[in-house]
Each structure stands twice: as structure tokens, then as C-alpha cells.
Amino acid sequence: MNEYKPQKPHILIRTPEQLQRYLEGSGSAELRFRAHPISGEPETYNYNSREKTVTRETDGRAFDSLDDFTCYAFQCDPEGYPRTEHIYLEVLN
């Protein structure tokens, strides 16, 4: 398996909880970022810190909660355990 190696500055996120803490502590009203999973294609998202919502840019899908988003990003199984070891987060704004 070829692992993604980012060319731009990135943040290595190892757990769903770490991703949630990062987003909640970003301090920015709006944060645009790209998540690069270790397998699959990267996706771009918008985080609204006032509403604590994440929206996928390609189709406008809003996740029900930060927990739902972080579980999606880490490809969690039905019990909520991550199936991936880490993701790379690339801040775009």
C-alpha cells in the first residue's frame, strides 16, 4: 500500500479525539481544511466553530456532530473504533 506523503505543511492527527480537540481549539470562526486518510482520496471540509459543524465541500453534506465527522474521517467501525491509524490535516485558510 502506498501511504500518502503530503507535500505541503500538514498536521498528523492520530486519534478521532485529537482531531476533535484540534477543531474545537482552532479559534477560527471558519476553518477550511483537507483531510488525507492513509487510504482513499483526500476530501475538503469547512468547519464552523460557532455552530460546531463540519460540511464536506464537494456535496455540501453536513455531519450531525463533531463525533460523527471524526468517526467518518477515521473510518470507524459500527462500535466506534477507528480503522485507520492516522490522517493528515492540511489547513487551507
Descriptive report:
The structure is a single chain. The chain has 93 residues and is α+β, with helices and mostly antiparallel strands. The protein has one domain (11-91). Helices cover 18% and strands 28% of the residues. The protein has 2 helices and 5 strands; from the N terminus they run βαβββαβ. A hairpin with a 5-residue loop joins strand 2 (30-37) and strand 3. It is globular and about 30 Å long. The termini are far apart.
Name the features:
28% strand; alpha+beta; five-stranded antiparallel beta sheet; 18% helix; 93 residues
What integer value in Å does the Rg equal? Answer: 12 Å
Helix content: 10-25%
Low-confidence stretches: none
Strand order of the largest sheet: 1-5-2-3-4
Average pLDDT, rounded to a whole number, is 86
> How many helical elements?
2
Work out the strand percent: 25-35%
Q: End-to-end distance, in Å?
A: 30 Å
- SSE string: EHEEEHE
Q: What is the number of strand segments?
A: 5
Going by helix content, strand content and strand pairing, the class is alpha+beta
* Largest sheet geometry: 5 strands, antiparallel
Number of domains: 1
